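Aim 2 progress update. The chain analyzed this quarter is reproduced below.
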Amino acid sequence: MKVSLIAWKENSFDLFAPLSVCLSKRISGLELEERFVPFLEDFPIVAQECSKDSDFIFVFALVDDEVDIRLVKEKLIDVELKNGVRIFKAIEKDTISGFDEEEFLESKNELVEYYCDIIVSILFNERAFVPEEKDFGL
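Predicted structure tokens:
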């Protein structure tokens, strides 16, 4: 199985080294491709290129502008629908770069585990996303 990891060069850290280790421990025979884009608008282009020989694509960016987040996700959905390759769009508001070193490292490690768990569940356990019925105490 080939998974492409695409990240923005302006992220406050490189998530891929620890994420690659985590994914490789959980998925046997995993082939990873790491790509980095200079501009947010390059994500769809690189995702299009990766979709030709990848089984799954993970896109990661920590962004300041909500408009950029929405626009990039919309364009990635277009690529996803056109090519039939699932894209995990981890493009979100940057709340980490202002942290002190301890908070920063803790948040980074939490993100690695969070994204690793979700990627593995998407690929091998979609039942993990079945909604749990709320208990209203009735």
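The longest strand covers residues 56-63. The chain has one domain: 2-126. These observations will guide the mutagenesis experiments scheduled for the next reporting period.
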